[in-house]
């Protein structure tokens, strides 16, 4: 099996998955489990894909240890960043928002990619869960500013002011 072929089959499984009943969700997780079984035992992709499947079917509590395992096994790059975003969201969903903040805050200084806005959005949700709404709103405005056809500078300044103490 080539990596490219395996990746295509995983992508097809995800493309076929939607919002289904729990029975369908269990079938979907079984498809992902079968694909993961084809990987080397120590592959970080296995626990990552399984975590995503549990998370996407409404079980963040089962996803958290799998995301952690994937990262511990060396999942890095784009998928590693995805794992951190998704783990922080799952942590928030199970009442551990502070751990989500600790995990994502360093990602604000990571090399920029298409996941930057997702980092800010998930971090904002974690901050909001901790009652730190102004900081969260600041992050969301900062992410939004670059997408606006006008008012980019104003929104960036408002975002900065929201995060400053005393404003």
Walk me through the structure:
By secondary structure, the protein is mostly helical. It has one domain: Tetratricopeptide repeat domain (Serine Threonine Protein Phosphatase 5, Tetratricopeptide repeat, Alpha Horseshoe). It is 71% helix and 0% strand. The chain is built from nine helices and no strands. The protein is elongated and about 55 Å long. It starts with a helix and ends with a helix.
End-to-end CA span: 57 Å
What is the helix content?
Answer: over 70%
CATH H-level homologous superfamily name: Tetratricopeptide repeat domain
Write down the secondary-structure element order: HHHHHHHHH
Computed CA radius of gyration, to the nearest angstrom: 18 Å
Query: Which of globular, elongated, flat, extended, rod-shaped describes the shape?
Result: elongated
Uncertain runs: none
Q: What is the CATH-assigned architecture? A: Alpha Horseshoe
Count of individual helical segments: 9
The total count of strands amounts to 0
Broad CATH class = Mainly Alpha
The figure for the number of domains is 1
Mean pLDDT: 92
Main β-sheet: number of strands, strand sense, barrel status? none
